[in-house]
Design a protein that fits this description.
mainly alpha; 0% strand; elongated
Length: 157
């Protein structure tokens, strides 16, 4: 249950930032674009953290301390959590989990995760993210939360 609590804490922070972003005057497009970029980075981090916490939580409940340390070490290096990489990570634990996660990643969910990660990488490298708006990142965030909930359920969190 620690994983769910930590994810809830991060989502609460994200929701707060999103709420502040929505109060920015619609005519202040530069500030709204900056908020959208910041939210994109936070949502990308949320995806990685959720995968880490879900799988580590499973390992902590089901395995010996030495195995837990290995899993923790391996998961700490997981980055750029695009949909295909998430499915592959879950496949390392259980092929059935990979299938279940892949089934959750219907077109819109897969696109949301892949777009968030791709945009985060563009932002990190100072590139233009064009059409990333508050409305779009809010939709991505909603879809990402659905996938995260599914990942946590798969792992029994």
């Amino acid at each position: 249950m620690i994983a769910r609590q930590e994810i809830h804490r991060i989502e609460t922070r994200l929701d707060s930032v999103l709420g502040r972003a929505k109060t920015v005057d619609a005519l202040d497009t530069e500030s709204r674009a900056d908020y959208a970029k910041y939210l994109c980075v936070l949502v990308s981090g949320l995806i990685e953290k959720a995968a880490y916490l879900s799988l580590l939580g499973y390992a902590q409940r089901k395995s010996a301390p030495k195995i837990q340390e290995y899993v923790k070490w391996h998961l700490a290096r997981f980055q750029n959590a695009k949909a295909a990489r998430l499915v592959e990570l879950f496949r390392h634990f259980d092929s059935g989990w990979a299938v279940a996660l892949d089934n959750c990643l219907v077109d819109e969910n897969r696109d949301a995760i892949d777009s968030v990660v791709a945009n985060k990488n563009r932002i990190a490298h100072g590139e233009d993210v064009g059409a990333l708006s508050l409305l779009r990142i809010e939709e991505y965030y909603r879809r990402v939360k659905n996938v995260i909930n599914h990942m946590m359920t798969i792992c029994g969190c």
